[in-house]
């Protein structure tokens, strides 16, 4: 920037002009020098120039917000899809927009929405979700390479310990790609992983596929490198690698190329003593290729493999999970034939399940949630009530059900003002009901909190850390007592179905939460709020806790019988098949599909409140499952009018 210097009155004008000309010439020279320097630098393979291609996943969002702050539903833009993805039709179906009337629970039902169009901040992968070590975690099982002596690891005959990936096309970096890179980290222990790309991996709108950023945070020598495909023919199509590019890189330096969809199941260091190891599947291009420097050169891979003067080997990767499991002699690599999520490997009792858990979690054992009957969840309940206002009939039933059905010792109602109205008058003096004043937070980890329903997301976790017990939304009623078994776990939650956000395989609804004080899961959940997004309704309370649980499945017990969520008068038990299908209705049909007396602990009506649960008069006049539940609670409380 050029700063004009004011001339003193006595200074001769021509000297002023001369000084200004000199300043302008020097500025121009500086700009030219900088431009030349940048041009020269761009000719060298840059590490990350394509990062400016990252799609801001929270851009141009239409946010529907309840006037009382109850509801904030994000309608997705359509510019974040894998535009060149041959499976785009699948992606379109997976990330369809959600309805605009999903509501948070703070004790006041939705009274309408207003539309606010605002850009949201960019979000990177939260390291607290995947990278925080917790004290209860077992030590990872040692890998074979860690037990080798240094003279074996530092053998000069070994092929260079650099691994190459090639990424073609604008698309998501998914869990199978993460497993591929992590298997290299675990079994090869490379000096460098060079990730060539023509288009930087994009982040899906709902922020599920953060795997690429997590790799960058976990491994210090993971090096994304942009390749300009107008000058280098790296790709033969969307997701298709031009192997000539790979051969050129390996010839120059040697090392190992691994296809993004291939997972190493093991990797004997003896393979690096070969001149070439070919495990590339000819048609799909999956597998890996390892060479010493100078190979394959101008020859084909098959010519080098057949050269008697070279020490070479051909290996076949398993082409499916079933093939890997059936093999008596386990292949060193596998290319799964289908999409994978962490939940697919949690309880998978097979060789592939054990191998993939070792890659992802560091141990092959099935993760098991800890139980302790000597240290039960405190028999207390927590409810949030903000802003005052009349207690509605469903909230009244909620409190009664906690006392007379769940049989908690105390119901603590936390908020900045007491409820009002006739129903509050009936319970406010009950010896088991306590009103706790708590000021509404303005920030969490320095992030603004202005959407009032997000306060429940923040507070319920804090309740668990400080006190333990049971948290419930005000539109929830218990139909069974919480037994010792469910109270023996450190943390208990259940899946949601009303606000499912593909590509998330699931989300967690903590409208009913059970937990012990200071349990590790609640700490990690709270730490994930360092990446709090106030303008995203489901990120903080539904999607983030799922990501925490995905990486630490031993910390949270997911019990589908904890609650049944009813949305738009449809009740979906999440233990039933296809519970995400909104066209299916599993409730309101007596004992044919759901026995509300024995199958579940609590019912949760998210939106709207059924008419029969809006007043005592409507309840007594109504028939059906909802009315039966309401009358059952009044009967247990000794209040049913015969």
UniProtKB/TrEMBL annotation:
Leader sequence segment: none
Pfam families in alphabetical order: Gly_transf_sug
InterPro entries, per database record: GlycoTrfase_DXD_sugar-bd_CS, Nucleotide-diphossugar_trans
Listed PANTHER family: ALPHA-1,4-N-ACETYLGLUCOSAMINYLTRANSFERASE, TRANSFERASE, PUTATIVE-RELATED
Protein name per the record: Alpha 1,4-glycosyltransferase domain-containing protein
Species this protein is from: Ridgeia piscesae (Tubeworm)
